[in-house]
Every structure is written in structure tokens, then in C-alpha cells.
Design a protein that fits this description.
The protein is α/β, with parallel strands linked by helices. It is built from twelve helices and 15 strands.
């Protein structure tokens, strides 16, 4: 199985990435991936007006995490955030060409601190072939408000930035966890989140749930992730591209929700470019079957999940993987957390669409984490961000002071039994 998986990845690496967001797009993915210097070149420290930033990494009194700085990861970071979309072309598990979109969030300049902010419309974002099935989304689903500016310039002078990949859950969507991905970018990261073709929100809204699709997606998702990372880092080496020399390809993390949490665990053992992972409410049962048991991981892992998850049984998927993970490792549990506690799904009125489209038992699934008995996302999301962003700051931005936000001492502040946390260092 390992050999087959590597063959699929090696074959798909020959395909290219094309950018939808403008400002230059690479047509190849064979450029050297590790070309960014450890420190920003002089031209990156020079602002458009010729001013040289005397304190790179800081914006006023607030500095991004680093050897001398450890900002509160539960709060907005020092930088405004931009967003752009690119398209990646790959081969699927049968060798057939396919394309998918990747959302990239990144630090931008201060002139965009107050917007204009991007709003995500489910209907407008849907692929053309799916729109006839979801006309109801035009009027019944309000746009998702974000704190990112569409196609704003990448902030220079305060980079280059580490990279974090994000993978959505089964029948999720690339923007399903903006509560996390956008604040993460504000702390000085390039965050790339991919759609997984045939296994997106638009597919379930148009065609309903299909377990066969989920199984096939498990074969394609590693290719999606490996190619997304390759496509994004290739842009770092292309003069004239908006991301030219703004990233650190040797400082890469990954996170994901549910099926994306599974992919984070898988990629942690599969791709040596990944240096730290944060799987959220992950499936884990297939890891050993695919040849990548969690015991073999060699990178830091911060595991998260809800003990009231009705979609993936904690007793089968979450709790068994924890003792198998090598150290260093952390484990966040919400006693009343559900499956979608770790996403923005609860903010979408998908129940109305499910009822109109007659999705059967979808109502129960969509309430998994969104009900009155679950921990409110207003409580859960800041905790998730504190631990996850602090974790990445420590391992990817080399900020020793950030350990205080996710080490064992933080659990002392959560004594009501709702939030449970363990940290085991090396």
C-alpha cells in the first residue's frame, strides 16, 4: 500500500498549478522547493516608500511570535490578512486529470486593516455544475463574513512566513474553519486550504452522501495535499509572483478536521516537509491499514476532539490514537464538544437546506456540536486557537515563549470539567 501511495504521489507531482488570484502564476511545479533564505533579504525589508523597517516581524507594539516574542495566540495577531484563490491540477487514483481550488490566507499590509473584507457566498462560490442543485442557497444561506481582504498584496518586510496546510472534513469545504485559518494567518503564516474534489459541501448538497466517494477520497487526499504544498511553495521561487520569497518551505505544519484530521496524521508520516500537525476530531482507524500507524510518527502532534462526538465515536477514533502517538504531544478534549465544534459549520444554516433537499438523517449530523447541550463555539474556538496557534508558533516560528500557551500548566485554568487537556513533552 505504501508503494502504491508513493507511486500515485510521484505521478501526480508532474502536474502543474495555475493561479486564479493574479499577480503571476507558475505553470510548473519542478522549481526547487527549498529556495527561501532563513532571513528576509534586504529588498523585503524595504517598504514601497523606501522606508526600511527597523523591527521586522512587528506591527506597532505587537510582534509576531519568534525567539524574543510570544503574543497571545487566542487573540488576533499583528497583521491584517489577505486571501486569494488558486487552482491545482492533479491526477486522481485512476490516473485521470482533475482540478481543485485552494484558498490561501496570508499577512497583508496595514492599509487593509479595516477591509474591505471578503464575504463567502455558498452559491457564488459553488462550481457551475453544482449551482442548479443549490439555487436555494441564493436566498436561504447568508454569506459568511470574514476578516480577510480579497487579493490584497502580501506583506513584505515581516516575512518570510511558515506555511500551514488545512484539509476539510468529508463533504466539507476549504473555508469551513475560517475561525482558525484566518487568525492563524494574522500571526504570520501562509495558510493553504484545499477543496477535495467529489467530497465537498457542494457535492453532498447536489448529490447526497455516498460512502463509496468517501473511500475513494481517502486515496486521492494525499495527492491533493502533497500537490497543494508543492504548488504553493513553487510560487515562492517564481520572480514576479505575489508570493515570491515570502515563505519558508522548510517550516511547514498541517491541520485538518475529521477526514482532514486523518489526512493530517497520514501526511505527518508520509511527507517529510511536514514538521508539526494539529488533527481536529480526526478519523484514525485507517492509518495502520494504509501503512502509516500513529506509532511511527516522528513529529510533534496536538490532538483535539469532542467527547460528545456523534459522527466519529471518540471510543473508536479519538481516544485509541492518543496513547499511540510519540512525544511531544498534546491532547485537547471538550466534554460536551461535538464533531462540528471544530469548524464553522454551526454558523451556516444548513439544516434548512437539508430539510428542503430531504437529506434524511442529516439533521442529526448537522447538530453534532451545534446543539444547546454542546459547548458554545464562542467558548471552544478561542481555546482551539490558543493551543493550535501557540503550538505552531513554538515549532514553526521558533518561539520558546509560546510554550506557555499549550504546555501542561494551561490545564490548571480549566477546572470545570468541560475542557480537558494533557501535554507530554519529549
Amino acid at each position: 500500500m505504501k508503494r502504491l501511495l508513493f507511486l500515485l504521489l510521484s505521478t501526480s507531482i508532474l502536474f502543474s498549478a495555475a493561479c486564479d488570484g493574479g499577480n503571476g502564476s507558475p505553470g510548473k511545479t519542478d522549481a526547487p522547493a527549498d529556495t527561501t533564505p532563513d532571513t528576509a533579504p534586504l529588498q523585503d525589508l524595504v517598504q514601497p516608500d523606501g522606508f526600511i523597517d527597523p523591527d521586522p516581524g512587528c506591527n506597532g507594539d505587537l510582534c509576531a511570535a519568534g525567539p524574543e516574542h510570544a503574543p497571545d495566540p487566542a487573540q488576533w495577531g499583528p497583521f491584517p490578512v489577505g486571501v486569494t484563490t488558486m487552482t491545482v491540477d492533479v491526477l486522481d487514483h485512476e490516473g485521470k486529470p482533475r482540478s481543485f481550488r485552494v484558498e490561501i490566507w496570508y499577512p497583508t499590509t496595514n492599509e487593509f486593516a479595516d477591509g474591505p473584507f471578503d464575504e463567502i457566498s455558498i452559491y457564488e462560490d459553488a462550481p457551475e455544475e453544482h449551482k442548479p442543485f443549490i439555487e436555494i442557497a441564493k436566498t436561504e444561506i447568508a454569506p459568511i463574513e470574514t476578516r480577510a481582504v480579497r487579493d490584497a498584496p502580501v506583506r513584505r518586510g515581516d516575512g518570510p512566513y511558515p506555511i500551514v496546510l488545512f484539509s476539510h472534513g468529508a463533504y466539507g469545504v476549504r473555508y469551513q474553519s475560517v475561525f482558525f485559518t484566518i487568525p492563524l494567518a494574522s500571526h504570520g503564516y501562509v495558510v493553504a486550504s484545499m477543496d477535495h474534489p467529489t467530497n465537498t459541501l457542494y457535492d453532498i448538497l447536489a448529490y447526497g452522501y455516498d460512502m463509496d466517494v468517501v473511500v475513494l477520497s481517502s486515496m486521492d487526499r494525499p495527492t491533493d495535499a502533497i500537490m497543494t504544498l508543492t504548488a504553493v511553495t513553487t510560487r515562492n521561487a517564481v520572480p514576479g509572483d505575489m508570493f515570491f520569497e515570502t515563505m519558508l518551505p522548510d517550516k511547514v505544519g498541517m491541520s485538518g478536521h475529521s477526514f482532514g484530521g486523518f489526512l493530517s496524521l497520514l501526511m505527518g508520516g508520509l511527507d517529510p516537509r511536514i514538521k508539526a500537525i494539529v488533527p481536529m476530531a480526526p478519523a484514525s482507524g485507517w492509518l495502520a491499514m494504509m501503512g502509516y500507524p500513529p506509532e511511527d510518527l516522528k513529529i510533534p502532534t496536538l490532538l483535539m476532539g469532542g467527547l460528545s462526538d456523534k459522527t466519529l465515536s471518540p471510543d473508536q477514533e479519538l481516544l485509541p490514537v492518543w496513547p499511540k502517538l510519540p512525544t511531544p504531544k498534546g491532547f485537547l478534549r471538550f466534554a460536551t464538544g461535538g464533531h462540528y465544534t471544530f469548524s464553522d459549520i454551526c454558523s451556516l444554516d444548513l439544516l434548512k437546506m437539508a430539510e428542503i433537499l430531504d437529506f434524511g438523517d442529516a439533521e442529526d449530523a448537522l447538530k453534532d456540536g451545534c446543539g444547546e447541550m454542546n459547548i458554545p463555539v464562542e467558548v471552544a474556538h478561542p481555546v482551539i486557537n490558543q493551543l493550535a496557534i501557540g503550538f505552531f508558533n513554538y515549532y514553526l516560528r521558533e518561539s520558546p515563549g509560546s510554550l506557555q500557551y499549550f504546555d501542561e500548566a494551561v490545564a490548571a485554568g480549566w477546572s470545570d470539567g468541560e475542557i480537558l487537556y494533557d501535554w507530554i513533552p519529549e
